[in-house]
């Protein structure tokens, strides 16, 4: 249940219709920068306490096969979309490219930019770059001031632990959930190359994750799988209708990951 961006992760099978888009295989993540020294005492990330999403009505279910287990280790992702949703080169969603867009994409980047507007070649480690699981399946964070949570100029919610359904794991697969916004008063055209980019694509020349409008909100799931975490990015814009945003939540809630 999650789309993969940067380079489409795998071939998809569709129920009840059939389709099998293929994507460029992902390269193994590059070496990560050293994590910051003198970090604060580790702490448990609380469980997500938000509302449960409503189920997708009259939807179509897609199965995404992992095309490169050397980058992020899982077998498949299953997700269900409502009528009216479409699939683009990188994103799935509704009203793609329009003011009311809602979209989901899937990524396995090796790091994120410290400043999405003024980017450098040095990447910050992803929030889940160093962690373990405490009792109760909560994420234990050792480095809270890295990754998407600390990107310059962005407002980030407190990270929460969530469980994604997984038939291969009795208690599901854990993920770190947070929400980010693009500054409402930002002139994106003034950013480097006229783009606001949270993280690069896996391969040089592939489309990176980019936010097209000021005030956009991204719901980020960093899914804890071996090798590198899978990032699921669900986004909506200031002009997105409430009905479309509710559909976005429903699609997120439909995700099932089969790790083994």
Count of DSSP-assigned helices: 1
Instruction: Assign a percent range to the helix content.
Output: under 10%
Q: Helices and strands, in N-to-C order? A: EEEEEEEEEEEEEEEEEEEEHE
Rg over CA atoms, rounded to whole Å, is 17 Å
Low-confidence stretches: 1-11, 15-30
Biggest sheet features: 8 strands, antiparallel
Strand content: 25-35%
The chain-level structural class is: mainly beta
Outline: globular
Structural account:
The chain is mostly beta strands. The chain contains one helix and 21 strands. The protein has one helix at residues 242-253, and strands at residues 12-15, 43-44, 60-65, 72-73, 76-81, 86-87, 92-94, 102-107, 112-113, 123-124, 131-133, 139-141, 155-156, 160-164, 173-181, 196-199, 209-211, 217-223, 226-227, 230-236, 256-258. The strands form six sheets. Strands 6, 7, 8, 13, 14, 15, 18 and 20 form an eight-stranded antiparallel sheet that branches. Strand 14 (160-164) and strand 15 form a beta hairpin. It is globular. The two termini are 16 Å apart. The model is unreliable at 1-11 and 15-30 (pLDDT under 50).
């Amino acid at each position: 249940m999650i789309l993969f961006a940067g380079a489409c992760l795998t071939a998809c099978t569709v129920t009840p219709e059939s389709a099998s888009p293929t994507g460029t295989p992902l390269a193994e993540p590059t070496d990560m920068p050293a994590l910051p020294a003198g970090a604060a005492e580790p702490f448990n990330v609380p469980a997500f306490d938000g509302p449960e999403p409503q189920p997708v009505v009259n939807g179509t279910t897609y199965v995404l096969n992992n095309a490169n287990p050397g980058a992020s280790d899982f077998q498949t992702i299953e997700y269900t979309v409502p009528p009216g949703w479409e699939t683009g080169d990188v994103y799935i969603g509704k009203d793609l490219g329009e003011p009311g867009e809602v979209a989901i994409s899937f990524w396995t980047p090796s790091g994120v930019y410290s400043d999405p507007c003024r980017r450098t070649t040095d990447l910050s480690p992803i929030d889940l770059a160093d962690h373990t699981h405490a009792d109760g399946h909560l994420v234990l964070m050792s480095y809270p001031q890295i990754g998407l949570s600390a990107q310059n100029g962005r407002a980030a919610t407190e990270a929460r632990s969530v469980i994604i359904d997984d038939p291969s794991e009795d208690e599901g697969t854990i993920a770190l959930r947070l929400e980010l916004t693009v500054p409402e008063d930002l002139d994106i055209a003034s950013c480097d190359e006229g783009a606001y980019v949270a993280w690069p694509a896996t391969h040089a020349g592939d489309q990176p994750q980019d936010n097209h409008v000021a005030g956009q909100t991204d719901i980020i799931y960093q899914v804890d799988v071996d090798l590198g975490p899978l990032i699921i990015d669900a986004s909506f814009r200031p002009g997105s209708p409430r009905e479309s945003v509710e559909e976005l939540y429903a699609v997120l809630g439909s995700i099932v990951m089969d790790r083994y």
